[in-house]
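2024-03-11 09:14:02 INFO queue: dequeued item CDP-diacylglycerol--glycerol-3-phosphate 3-phosphatidyltransferase, len=240
2024-03-11 09:14:02 INFO validating residues
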Amino acid sequence: MINSDPQQTLKTQRLAGPAVPLAMLAVGLLVLVGIASAALFDNVATPLAVFLVISVFALRGVLLNYPHDTLGFCNVVTLIRAAMISVLCAAIIEPASESWWVFLIALAAFALDGLDGWLARRSGLSSAFGARFDMEIDALLGAVLALILLAGGRVGPEILILGFARYAFVAASILLPKLRRTLPENFRRKAICVIQIAALIVLLCPLTPPWLMYPVLLGASLLLLWSFAADTWFLLRRAE
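2024-03-11 09:14:37 INFO prediction written
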């Protein structure tokens, strides 16, 4: 039986609007991820798998939660950043390979952070999906950079504080439902997120002297832990 519900038809068309270009872009970027990974590393499978998973979740998010009819350059930029981070995943397996390229790709992914949000606001395409997509890509960038540094032996396991603090917070929220509440917008949180990624990139830079590594790591880690502690305290007090 043919579905003649006009509202359902319009909904399907609206969802297809951003989903189709997202899928096409993801396929194109998947090819580029494979080419870049093959050129820089021996490991191609890991970057391809990571980007494929990201693309599937992004497409699912667009289909379920994206309120606009067009994808917008804001989400294109975020997906490009995801492709860059996927390429970097190969450096976790091959930490000694192409250190300058790893640094430059990480720097480019970091430099594009903020552009997607600015484009979303400028074009009127801000959305909960876009904000969440950007946040998850930021978190993934931090985790990947921390693992690259750990695998390369430039720092010890304490680097995981910078890479996995947010994931630890998410894990804690499973045990403490009060932590699942929405946090208000906060400049402190955004600024420390920038400092966190910037510190990881400084640590990744081949020119960074060994004596500077631990002061940068310690300072950024303390700021990050303080920020998460402040948010945790706020949520627990708010829930009382």
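2024-03-11 09:14:37 INFO annotate: The CA atoms of residues 169 and 229 lie 10 Å apart.
2024-03-11 09:14:38 INFO item closed
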